[in-house]
Amino acid sequence: MPLLDHFHAPLSPRRSWESFHSTWAGVIADALNGGLLPEGYFAEELTHSGPRVEIDVATMRDPAGGRGGTATLPCKYAPPAPSHVLAGAFPTGFEGLGFQDEGGARLGAAIELVSPANKDRPSHRRAFAIKCASYLVRGVALLLVDVVTSRSADLHGEIVGLLGQSAPLLPPSPLYASAFRPIVREGEERIDVWTQGLALGRPLPTMPLALHAGTCLPIELEETYTEACRRRRLP
Fold first, then answer.
1. Considering its fold, how many domains does the chain have in total?
2. 2 in any annotated domain
3. Distances in Å between the alpha carbon of 43 and those of 9, 19, 20, 57, 129?
4. For the purposes of burial, counting CB atoms within 10 Å of the CB of 78, is it exposed (0-12), middle (13-18) or buried (19 or more)?
5. Residues 50, 99: contact at Cβ < 8 Å?
6. Quick one: which H or E segment has residue 110?
7. 83: exposed, middle or buried (Cβ count in 10 Å: 0-12, 13-18, 19+)
8. Residue-wise pLDDT tens digits, 129-139
9. What is the pLDDT of residues 80-100, one digit of tens each?
Protein backbone atom coordinates (compact mmCIF):
# COMPACT_ATOMS: atom_id res chain seq x y z
CA MET A 1 0.00 0.00 0.00
CA PRO A 2 1.66 3.29 -1.02
CA LEU A 3 1.69 6.01 1.62
CA LEU A 4 -1.55 8.02 1.59
CA ASP A 5 -2.05 11.66 2.54
CA HIS A 6 -4.15 11.41 5.69
CA PHE A 7 -4.34 15.19 6.20
CA HIS A 8 -5.76 16.51 2.93
CA ALA A 9 -8.65 15.66 0.61
CA PRO A 10 -9.92 13.17 -0.33
CA LEU A 11 -9.14 11.38 2.98
CA SER A 12 -9.34 14.38 5.31
CA PRO A 13 -11.65 15.44 6.89
CA ARG A 14 -13.76 12.47 5.83
CA ARG A 15 -11.52 9.93 7.60
CA SER A 16 -10.03 10.35 11.07
CA TRP A 17 -6.25 10.36 11.54
CA GLU A 18 -6.72 9.64 15.25
CA SER A 19 -8.55 6.41 14.44
CA PHE A 20 -5.91 5.36 11.92
CA HIS A 21 -3.11 6.33 14.31
CA SER A 22 -4.43 4.03 17.04
CA THR A 23 -5.02 1.23 14.53
CA TRP A 24 -1.49 1.45 13.10
CA ALA A 25 -0.01 1.44 16.61
CA GLY A 26 -2.09 -1.64 17.43
CA VAL A 27 -0.96 -3.46 14.29
CA ILE A 28 2.71 -2.74 15.12
CA ALA A 29 2.18 -4.04 18.67
CA ASP A 30 0.49 -7.16 17.26
CA ALA A 31 3.47 -7.77 14.96
CA LEU A 32 5.90 -7.45 17.86
CA ASN A 33 3.88 -9.79 20.07
CA GLY A 34 3.21 -12.17 17.20
CA GLY A 35 6.77 -13.43 16.83
CA LEU A 36 9.34 -10.63 16.74
CA LEU A 37 9.86 -10.27 20.47
CA PRO A 38 11.79 -12.86 22.48
CA GLU A 39 10.43 -14.45 25.64
CA GLY A 40 10.13 -12.05 28.55
CA TYR A 41 9.15 -9.07 26.38
CA PHE A 42 5.76 -7.74 25.35
CA ALA A 43 4.44 -4.75 23.42
CA GLU A 44 1.43 -2.56 24.17
CA GLU A 45 -0.01 0.34 22.20
CA LEU A 46 -1.05 3.74 23.60
CA THR A 47 0.63 3.02 26.92
CA HIS A 48 1.08 5.54 29.73
CA SER A 49 4.32 5.55 31.69
CA GLY A 50 3.51 7.96 34.47
CA PRO A 51 0.90 10.71 34.32
CA ARG A 52 2.64 12.82 31.65
CA VAL A 53 3.97 10.29 29.16
CA GLU A 54 1.96 8.44 26.52
CA ILE A 55 3.85 6.03 24.26
CA ASP A 56 2.33 4.97 20.94
CA VAL A 57 3.95 1.51 21.04
CA ALA A 58 5.94 0.47 24.13
CA THR A 59 8.13 -2.61 24.20
CA MET A 60 8.46 -3.77 27.78
CA ARG A 61 10.65 -6.28 29.55
CA ASP A 62 8.85 -8.29 32.22
CA PRO A 63 11.26 -9.18 35.06
CA ALA A 64 8.97 -12.07 35.98
CA GLY A 65 9.60 -13.65 32.56
CA GLY A 66 6.79 -15.85 31.27
CA ARG A 67 5.13 -15.75 27.90
CA GLY A 68 6.16 -12.23 26.94
CA GLY A 69 6.45 -13.23 23.29
CA THR A 70 6.15 -16.27 21.07
CA ALA A 71 9.73 -16.23 19.78
CA THR A 72 12.17 -18.40 21.70
CA LEU A 73 15.25 -16.66 20.25
CA PRO A 74 15.88 -13.04 19.33
CA CYS A 75 14.93 -12.19 15.77
CA LYS A 76 17.77 -12.90 13.31
CA TYR A 77 17.98 -9.44 11.80
CA ALA A 78 21.08 -7.42 11.01
CA PRO A 79 20.28 -3.72 10.50
CA PRO A 80 22.18 -1.74 7.89
CA ALA A 81 25.01 0.51 8.97
CA PRO A 82 23.70 3.60 10.79
CA SER A 83 23.28 6.78 8.80
CA HIS A 84 25.00 8.70 11.61
CA VAL A 85 26.59 8.04 15.01
CA LEU A 86 26.19 10.66 17.75
CA ALA A 87 28.38 11.09 20.78
CA GLY A 88 26.26 10.09 23.76
CA ALA A 89 27.66 12.50 26.34
CA PHE A 90 24.36 14.12 27.27
CA PRO A 91 24.36 17.74 28.48
CA THR A 92 24.35 18.05 32.26
CA GLY A 93 21.59 20.67 32.12
CA PHE A 94 19.13 18.42 30.29
CA GLU A 95 15.95 17.99 32.31
CA GLY A 96 14.05 15.05 30.93
CA LEU A 97 10.77 13.47 31.89
CA GLY A 98 10.56 10.81 34.56
CA PHE A 99 9.06 7.43 33.67
CA GLN A 100 7.27 5.01 35.94
CA ASP A 101 7.74 1.27 35.53
CA GLU A 102 4.27 -0.23 35.57
CA GLY A 103 4.01 -3.40 37.63
CA GLY A 104 7.75 -3.99 37.50
CA ALA A 105 7.88 -4.08 33.67
CA ARG A 106 10.66 -1.91 32.30
CA LEU A 107 10.49 0.10 29.09
CA GLY A 108 12.91 -1.31 26.54
CA ALA A 109 12.02 0.55 23.33
CA ALA A 110 9.44 3.08 22.13
CA ILE A 111 7.78 3.83 18.80
CA GLU A 112 6.27 7.27 18.23
CA LEU A 113 3.94 8.03 15.31
CA VAL A 114 3.94 11.81 14.95
CA SER A 115 0.55 13.56 15.08
CA PRO A 116 -0.31 17.09 13.90
CA ALA A 117 -0.54 18.29 17.50
CA ASN A 118 3.11 17.35 18.04
CA LYS A 119 4.07 19.88 15.33
CA ASP A 120 1.41 22.48 16.11
CA ARG A 121 3.38 25.15 17.99
CA PRO A 122 6.79 25.62 19.62
CA SER A 123 5.65 24.48 23.06
CA HIS A 124 4.14 21.28 21.65
CA ARG A 125 7.22 20.57 19.56
CA ARG A 126 9.51 21.05 22.53
CA ALA A 127 7.36 18.88 24.81
CA PHE A 128 7.39 16.07 22.25
CA ALA A 129 11.14 16.41 21.71
CA ILE A 130 11.77 16.32 25.48
CA LYS A 131 9.74 13.12 25.75
CA CYS A 132 11.72 11.47 22.95
CA ALA A 133 15.10 12.70 24.21
CA SER A 134 14.20 11.36 27.65
CA TYR A 135 13.96 7.86 26.18
CA LEU A 136 17.49 8.13 24.81
CA VAL A 137 18.98 9.57 28.00
CA ARG A 138 17.62 6.51 29.84
CA GLY A 139 19.10 4.15 27.25
CA VAL A 140 15.74 3.37 25.63
CA ALA A 141 15.73 2.95 21.85
CA LEU A 142 13.32 5.06 19.78
CA LEU A 143 11.67 4.77 16.38
CA LEU A 144 10.07 8.01 15.14
CA VAL A 145 7.72 8.04 12.12
CA ASP A 146 6.45 11.34 10.67
CA VAL A 147 3.84 11.13 7.89
CA VAL A 148 2.08 14.40 8.82
CA THR A 149 1.66 16.57 5.72
CA SER A 150 -0.47 19.34 7.23
CA ARG A 151 2.32 20.94 9.31
CA SER A 152 6.07 21.27 8.93
CA ALA A 153 8.54 20.84 11.78
CA ASP A 154 11.90 19.14 12.23
CA LEU A 155 11.16 17.08 15.33
CA HIS A 156 14.17 14.89 14.59
CA GLY A 157 16.40 17.95 14.74
CA GLU A 158 14.79 19.19 17.96
CA ILE A 159 15.40 15.83 19.65
CA VAL A 160 19.04 15.74 18.62
CA GLY A 161 19.50 19.39 19.58
CA LEU A 162 18.22 18.74 23.11
CA LEU A 163 21.02 16.21 23.48
CA GLY A 164 23.56 18.90 22.71
CA GLN A 165 24.31 17.54 19.25
CA SER A 166 24.15 18.92 15.74
CA ALA A 167 21.22 17.29 13.97
CA PRO A 168 22.25 14.70 11.37
CA LEU A 169 20.96 15.61 7.97
CA LEU A 170 17.69 13.94 7.08
CA PRO A 171 16.88 12.88 3.53
CA PRO A 172 15.44 15.78 1.48
CA SER A 173 11.86 15.08 2.48
CA PRO A 174 9.52 16.58 5.10
CA LEU A 175 8.31 13.04 5.81
CA TYR A 176 10.72 10.55 7.33
CA ALA A 177 11.39 7.73 9.74
CA SER A 178 14.35 7.84 12.11
CA ALA A 179 15.58 5.21 14.54
CA PHE A 180 17.87 5.81 17.52
CA ARG A 181 19.89 3.17 19.41
CA PRO A 182 21.73 4.25 22.59
CA ILE A 183 24.76 2.00 22.93
CA VAL A 184 28.13 1.77 24.71
CA ARG A 185 30.85 1.00 22.20
CA GLU A 186 34.50 0.62 23.24
CA GLY A 187 33.66 2.20 26.57
CA GLU A 188 32.06 5.29 25.00
CA GLU A 189 28.40 6.23 24.95
CA ARG A 190 27.03 6.55 21.44
CA ILE A 191 23.68 6.84 19.70
CA ASP A 192 23.35 5.05 16.37
CA VAL A 193 20.89 6.86 14.09
CA TRP A 194 19.14 5.52 11.00
CA THR A 195 17.18 7.95 8.81
CA GLN A 196 14.95 7.23 5.84
CA GLY A 197 12.94 9.69 3.75
CA LEU A 198 9.28 8.90 3.06
CA ALA A 199 7.12 10.01 0.15
CA LEU A 200 3.43 9.96 -0.66
CA GLY A 201 2.59 7.24 -3.15
CA ARG A 202 5.68 5.20 -2.28
CA PRO A 203 6.05 2.10 -0.08
CA LEU A 204 7.35 2.49 3.47
CA PRO A 205 10.72 1.10 4.60
CA THR A 206 11.77 -1.42 7.21
CA MET A 207 13.34 0.31 10.22
CA PRO A 208 15.39 -1.12 13.10
CA LEU A 209 14.15 -1.09 16.69
CA ALA A 210 16.81 -1.96 19.27
CA LEU A 211 15.87 -3.97 22.35
CA HIS A 212 19.45 -3.81 23.62
CA ALA A 213 22.93 -3.55 22.18
CA GLY A 214 22.88 -7.03 20.67
CA THR A 215 19.35 -7.22 19.28
CA CYS A 216 17.54 -5.12 16.71
CA LEU A 217 14.09 -5.98 15.43
CA PRO A 218 12.85 -5.19 11.91
CA ILE A 219 9.76 -2.98 12.07
CA GLU A 220 8.01 -3.51 8.76
CA LEU A 221 6.34 -0.15 8.32
CA GLU A 222 4.95 -1.11 4.91
CA GLU A 223 3.31 -4.33 6.09
CA THR A 224 1.88 -2.80 9.25
CA TYR A 225 0.65 0.30 7.40
CA THR A 226 -1.04 -1.85 4.75
CA GLU A 227 -2.78 -3.93 7.43
CA ALA A 228 -3.92 -0.79 9.26
CA CYS A 229 -5.37 0.56 5.99
CA ARG A 230 -7.16 -2.76 5.43
CA ARG A 231 -8.67 -2.70 8.92
CA ARG A 232 -9.87 0.88 8.44
CA ARG A 233 -11.10 0.19 4.86
CA LEU A 234 -8.92 2.87 3.36
CA PRO A 235 -8.32 2.81 -0.40
1. 1
2. no
3. 33, 19, 18, 7, 22
4. exposed
5. yes
6. strand 106-113
7. middle
8. 999 998 998 88
9. 999 999 886 565 555 555 544
CA torsion through residues 164, 99, 105, 38, sign: negative
Is the backbone peptide bond immediately before 2 cis, with ω within 30 degrees of 0?
A: no
What backbone torsions phi and psi does residue 227 show, to the nearest 5 degrees?
A: -65, -40
Which DSSP string corresponds to 116-159?
A: GGGGSSHHHHHHHHHHHHHHHHTT-EEEEEE---SS---HHHHH
Q: Is the pLDDT at 234 greater than 90, yes or no?
A: yes
**Quick check: is 6 in a domain?**
no
Residue of higher predicted confidence among 106 and 12 = 12
pLDDT at position 48 is 64
> Which residues lie across from 111 on neighbouring strands?
57, 143
What's the whole-model pTM score? 0.89
Q: Could you list the residue range(s) of the whole structural domain that residue 120 is in? A: 17-231
Per the domain annotation, does 5 fall within a domain?
no
